[in-house]
Amino acid sequence: MIIDLPSTTSSKINKAMVDLREKGGTVTLGRVLTLVIVTEEGSAEDPIEAANGASFEHPCRVIVVARGSKRGAPRMDAQIRVGGDAGASEVVVLRLYGALVDHGASIVVPLLLADAPVVAWWSGAAPAVPADDPIGALATRRITDSAGTRRTAGALADRLSGYRPGDTDLTWTRLTTWRGLLAAALDQPPHGKVTSVEVAGASDSVSTDLLAAWLALQLRCPVRRIKAGRTGSGVHTVTLSRREGSIRLHRPDARTATLSVTEQPDREVALPRRSLRDCIAEELRRLEPDDVYAEVLCRGVALVAKYADAPESTGRAHSAASDATPAPSGGRTKAPRRSRTAVPTVRDAPAAPVADATVPARRARSPRTRP
Amino acid sequence: MTAALSNPLRDPRDKRLPRIAGPSGIVIFGVTGDLSRKKLMPAIYDLANRGLLPPGFALVGFARRDWSREDFSTVVHDAVKQYARTPFSEDVWRHLAEGFRFVQGSFDDDVAFDTLAATLADLDEVRGTGGNHAFYFSIPPDAFPVVLKQLKRAGMCDHSEDQWRRVVIEKPFGSDLKTAQELNSLVSDVFPSESVFRIDHYLGKETVQNLLALRFANQMYEPIWNAHYVDHVQITQAEDIGVGGRAGYYDGIGAARDVIQNHLLQLMALTAMEEPGSFDPTNLRREKVKVLAAVRLPEDLMAGTARGQYAAGWQGGEKVPGYLDEEGIAASSQTETYAAVKLLVDNRRWAGVPFYLRTGKRLGKRVSEIAVVFKRAPHLPFAKGDTAELGSNALVIRVQPDEGITIRFGSKVPGPAMEVRDVSMDFSYGQSFTEASPEAYERLILDVLLGEPSLFPQDEEVELSWRILDPIERAWAKARTQPEPYGSGSWGPASADALMARDGRAWRRP
């Protein structure tokens, strides 16, 4: 059922929802969280669909803040969707216009479920520091999507400079299947130490960067990030080398992966790119800060950059990696591991880097400021 | 476990990382059966679709039917299309189907088992299953000995350090203590006990696992979870269907052996047990065993139990035959299709609190639940008539369908008079959750492949359960009476109501 409330206010929406519940006879309030989706007007339907799908696992109230044009008089149009049109959730779509566009939080607050956790999700461009955003400040968990932004090149640096505990990014979520397969491969004997790693993926794939960073952090060995495939094709190949032979997970076509282990037959497995619904369902499963993501972002990315810096002396980089603290790299900031074909705007340096983010922030900034 | 510890990619804080089974395959004996088509095949596909099966997974069917690999593949395909929970993906299917094999033969056919052994060796070679194979016995228990013997003869149960062989058995785990022990020793001759997985699919259900969360993660239930506040506990498993195609198996076994011995006693153990030191399999099992060992039967077994047999009648708008008229059932059969027993638990927590367990076929509706019924408030400061409609508070854990939790309590009826009546508050884990929550078999099959035994009852629990049920079965057999008939679609025989009435209680209508 869809109910439209043109030119309305939060209290009218609340009243309409209580009415609906009473008339509809649904007396249960089994919702486990409030999901606030911030999006631009016109691109709200995909995230809503994903949230509705995920709501079968996490019954929730979905509040969509769709930001319209800032011109004109402040106005809010609302739409309430329940029942078949909302999966197992109830969806409130708020379309904001005029000055109201910047005051989404004031509308969201009265609509939040009592005592339930709040998750904010920016399906498109995200604020520089999600936790400081008025809506982000309401949430315990803040989801961004670096792959959803127009320029992925600086995306990781932006995520890093704006990181606060509770942040997470869908480019990390999309990796779970890859990470699971690699971890499962290492569960099997022989349990020899991995001595070097190569991670290949599209040049614009933030997920590939994160995968390399994760492996560098966990395996404490040199990791090379290699550009392969056309843009948008995601992760291609991961090769883990050990004394006993190598483990190679290769996905050439974004559908099927082949796992090749030395002295074992090749094994194939379907490894499709994860749907938005799956990713959101996974995000909503855990609402505490994702410490592993934080470390990968704050330390792993820098480690990979360091290996890229010192291609000939992997031994040195390796010992630095074992210290597990990115040493101040002084003038050694050249790390051009991505082609910078993006618009050469000189962006502001990330303001006030968070704890132990100093080095990667420097590193990420430097290539862009250079011609 | 050791693999997980030594694996640098497994960080205990990394809760996203799924546990994917290692290289392995599964062999299903009795692959043409209902269970296999409706539960196992769809569960295997769903696991594959969720990315939890290893690359190169193999599924081998073994049955008498003269099928080619393609025929087998078609059967699985149809089963998956019809019963799988997750959407069908051509890619997932294609890779899964490449690992299908079918071996035709009967259980006494040496050649067939040699072929099976060769097939497994070939799979290790081609698919990289790494010598890890689970044997799923979806077959009648009387076929166990011969199959086990064959597996041993063909050398399929020898495993080395880096490889595993596991066996999965479905209930019934014997038909009394003696046969259960025989079965245990028979299986343990061939497979070490840590390689034996007994499937009790109830334990794979989310709600049952949620029972542990409800009890041990919350502060508000534990203080009242004892004889001071609990009046009694009712555990119900009701089916609306009759004996159907299972006549051959069911007759002579009956409801008590079929359901109470495994499902209901397990649910009771989880409801009544003390808090385990941790949720690792050994600790959990220790607590379950403790409570099962503390179970005491009523003095007068005939007064403390009830049994019935469904008679012809109308159920849900359909005319259905009585048990004795069912195909394959002797007209003189004394097998019960309804059983209710009263059990006591001799420990400090539960002294004097009866646990009533009931199960039956062709009852009012299909439902499984655990109802903890509390004592009435010691004093009610209301006028006499005001609380006439007030019953006892109850906490109901609905296992299936519509999984969730209901709390029943008294509330004032709106209006000028003070009148208190029962209302219920629902937590519907159910309606929204079930769709996306994994089927019990998915969880259990994955646990078998991972070698994770917490959700599988072990020898000791099975034997203790039989120790509880055996005296009851003996008393019934000695009575040599026909179980009391009850109308199909009703809630069981009058003697079951009388059993409760004697204690001044009544069955809940689920």
UniProtKB/TrEMBL annotation, chain A:
Q: What is this protein called?
A: Glucose-6-phosphate dehydrogenase assembly protein OpcA
Composition skew (Low complexity), residue ranges: 341-361
Domain Glucose-6-phosphate dehydrogenase assembly protein OpcA N-terminal, which positions?
51-159
Q: Where do Basic residues bias regions lie?
A: 362-371
Which residues lie within the region annotated Disordered?
311-371
Domain Glucose-6-phosphate dehydrogenase assembly protein OpcA C-terminal as annotated: residue spans: 165-297
Pfam entry (one) = OpcA_G6PD_C
- Lineage, top-rank taxon, reads Bacteria
TrEMBL record, chain B:
Q: Which reaction does it catalyse?
A: D-glucose 6-phosphate + NADP(+) = 6-phospho-D-glucono-1,5-lactone + NADPH + H(+)
List the Pfam families. G6PD_C, G6PD_N
Supply one GO molecular-function term: glucose-6-phosphate dehydrogenase activity
Q: So what EC number does this one have?
A: 1.1.1.49
Recorded hits in PROSITE patterns, A to Z, give: G6P_DEHYDROGENASE (PS00069)
Where's the Glucose-6-phosphate dehydrogenase C-terminal domain? 212-508
The pathway this protein participates in, as annotated, is: Carbohydrate degradation; pentose phosphate pathway; D-ribulose 5-phosphate from D-glucose 6-phosphate (oxidative stage): step 1/3
**Domain of life of the organism encoding this protein:** Bacteria
UniProt keyword list:
Carbohydrate metabolism, Glucose metabolism, NADP, Oxidoreductase
Q: Which residues bind substrate?
A: 201, 205, 239, 258, 361
RNA-binding in keyword set: no
Give a Gene Ontology cellular component term annotated to this protein: cytosol
One GO biological-process annotation of the entry reads:
pentose-phosphate shunt, oxidative branch
Q: Does the keyword Nucleotide-binding apply?
A: no
Indicate the residues that form the catalytic site.
263 (proton acceptor)
**What are the binding positions for NADP(+) in this chain?**
64, 171
* Residue span(s) of domain Glucose-6-phosphate dehydrogenase NAD-binding: 27-210
Question: Which Gene3D superfamilies does this chain map to?
Answer: Dihydrodipicolinate Reductase, domain 2, NAD(P)-binding Rossmann-like Domain
Q: What does the protein in this record do?
A: Catalyzes the oxidation of glucose 6-phosphate to 6-phosphogluconolactone.
Family of this protein = Belongs to the glucose-6-phosphate dehydrogenase family.
PANTHER family this protein is in? GLUCOSE-6-PHOSPHATE 1-DEHYDROGENASE (PTHR23429:SF0), GLUCOSE-6-PHOSPHATE 1-DEHYDROGENASE G6PD (PTHR23429)
Query: What protein is this chain from?
Result: Glucose-6-phosphate 1-dehydrogenase
